[in-house]
Specification:
The protein contains 13 helices and six strands. The protein has helices at about 10-15, 30-40, 70-80, 85-95, 135-150, 165-175, 195-205, 215-225, 225-240, 250-260, 280-290, 305-320, 325-330, and strands at about 50-55, 95-105, 115, 155-160, 245, 270. A six-stranded parallel beta sheet has the order 3-2-1-4-5-6, sandwiched between helices. Helix 5 (about 135-150) packs across helix 8 (about 215-225), helix 9 crosses helix 10 (about 250-260) and helix 10 (about 250-260) packs parallel to helix 11. Catalyzes the synthesis of alpha-ribazole-5'-phosphate from nicotinate mononucleotide (NAMN) and 5,6-dimethylbenzimidazole (DMB). Keywords: Cobalamin biosynthesis, Glycosyltransferase, Transferase.
Length: about 350
């Protein structure tokens, strides 16, 4: 896929340099504005609305977490009630929220406002065998593509909830990058040193079941979560619809890496929003050649970092669309020639 419209980089740069400021003086905001302009195909881009999609699912490796698996289901209720951090941040920045059951353990959830796309009642234990079947991977990706393509907002932010999903993300990232999983393993929900050591040993054992480097479909089948696979599909769908794709932290980063493996062209829609405090996120960003906008020591997930970055993206687009040019303002562009 190629999300670029018929607007040259030279035309965008000329529009930026013509604004009433020294060239390049707004630093990375200028690059962000140029990215959005290219994505939307206009030198006057707009990013005024945002929708956060939170994908929830459970994992067979949940026992490695400091929190019990039932927290996933409980947090879905918290999202729907508007009490989670992501809910609060969404209200603060004017974003709408959609909560998706991609595969929460137990009986199917029924709640007003919940979107059900459940693939199953949680994945299998990836320490012992594949987390899901090939058919389940395809189903999750396709459900995500449809949800992402259906976003009716200028920007689509993506978050997740699933006890055990930092373990899944570490394994998926390791296989996509072709790196050992050990250095990518972090504390997740707050493991102590002993718990972290057990988690690292368990994931190193799980990683040994498969080749060092794998493609996205195989990595997701062996180690992924339903929410990670569905989020990857949603990123692909939103990118194809030319929405700005706001990539959150480590787990969303693993989904983004999966999406990029499936379609490198979707990179032009992606904004990497923050550098998580989770151990593997720095290595994942490095492997993707991505420089995030923020570094706030966040490690919550839920799309919180993506929401906090949304105002920067909105401001960058507004700068290019609304800032006066030297000609319009009657301001001299520089010292006279000669």
């Amino acid at each position: 896929m190629d999300v670029r419209a018929a607007l040259s980089a030279q035309a965008i740069q000329a529009a930026l340099d013509g604004k009433t400021k020294p060239p390049g003086s707004l630093g990375r905001i200028e690059g962000l504005a140029a990215q959005v302009a290219a994505l939307q195909g206009t030198p006057a881009p707009r990013v005024e609305s945002c929708r956060l999609l939170i994908f929830a699912a459970d994992h067979g490796m949940a026992a490695l977490s400091a929190f019990p698996q039932e927290v996933t289901r409980q947090m879905v209720g918290n999202f729907l009630a508007g009490g989670a951090a992501a809910s609060v941040f969404a209200r603060a920045v004017g974003a709408e929220v959609t909560v998706v059951d991609a595969g929460v353990a137990g009986e199917p959830l029924e709640a007003e406002g919940l979107v059900s796309r459940r693939i199953g009642a949680g994945t299998a234990d990836a320490r012992e065998g594949p987390a899901m079947s090939a058919d389940q991977v395809r189903e999750a990706l396709e459900a995500g593509r449809a949800l992402g393509a259906g976003v009716r907002a200028d920007a689509a932010a993506f978050g997740e909830m699933g006890i055990g999903n930092t373990a899944s993300a570490a394994l998926v990232a390791a296989k996509l990058l072709g790196r050992p999983v050990g250095p990518l393993v972090g504390r997740g929900t707050g493991l102590d040193d002993a718990g972290l050591a057990r988690k690292r040993a368990a994931l190193e054992g799980a990683a040994g079941r498969c080749p060092d480097r794998m493609g996205a479909v195989d990595a997701l089948r062996e180690y992924g979560g339903f929410e990670i696979a569905m989020m990857a599909g949603a990123m692909l769908g939103a990118a194809r619809a030319r929405r700005v794709v706001l990539v959150d932290g480590f787990i969303a980063g693993a989904a983004a890496a999966s999406a990029l493996d499936l379609d490198p062209g979707c990179r032009e829609a992606m904004v990497f929003c923050h550098r998580s405090a989770e151990a593997g996120h720095g290595a994942l960003l490095e492997g993707l050649g991505a420089e995030p906008l923020l570094d706030l020591a966040l490690r919550l997930g839920e799309g919180t970092g993506a929401l906090l970055a949304f105002p920067l993206v909105r401001a960058a687009a507004a700068m290019l669309a609304e800032m006066a040019s030297f000609e319009d303002a009657g301001v001299s562009a520089g010292p006279p020639a000669g």
